Amino acid sequence: MIKTLITSLFITTLSFSQTQTEREAFKLSLIVDAKSVYEMDVPKSPYFVDPKVIQVFPGEKLNIETEIRNDTVYSMKVVKEIAFPERTITLDFSQQGDTRETQQMILTVTNPFDKKLNYNALMFTQRGQRWTPTSIIPIMPKLLNYEMWPHPIVSLILDKWRLE
């Protein structure tokens, strides 16, 4: 009985201690074209702007541990390390390219579930200066997906996570 209580307390403490609720402040720098760079100071801020609505910036790699209830994404939290791979979505958002002229934005999302994972996305670009919907391809079970855009994106909002 005491051993079970201690183990339970340890697991709970470990779970809370590795949860990350906010990103640290950093300087975002994006190549815009052959001659221009977009820079922005991103302040210390929460990853989630609402429950199950995550904001991600280029350069961020996030592990999002989920709780699933009745085939629905019930809750989400960002964790430092993956303790439950069967219910942790990984995100990697970056700008990549061989030259300044061939830069593109890439969002990699890993689906750990036995069902198709889908979500909605909004993007904020330095040119448009507003949130604009962008299309997303559903991710098949146990696979990862690459979303690519040929222009700089300052930030993405990912929401309406669902299993299908």
Can you walk me through this structure?
A six-stranded antiparallel sheet has the order 1-9-8-10-11-14. It has 164 residues and is mainly beta. Helix content is 10%, strand content 52%. The protein has one domain (2-163).
Order of helices and strands: HEEEEEEEEEEEEEEE
Largest sheet: 6 strands, antiparallel
Could you give the count of β-strands?
15
What is the number of independent domains? 1
Helix fraction? under 10%
Q: Which blocks of ≥5 consecutive residues have pLDDT under 50?
A: 1-17
Shape: globular
For this entry, what is the oligomeric state of its chains? single chain
Mean pLDDT, rounded to whole units? 89
Beta-strand percentage range:
over 45%
How far the N terminus sits from the C terminus, by CA atoms, comes to 40 Å
| SS class | mainly beta
Output the radius of gyration: 18 Å
Q: How many individual helices? A: 1
Task: Order the strands across the largest sheet as they lie in space.
Answer: 1-9-8-10-11-14
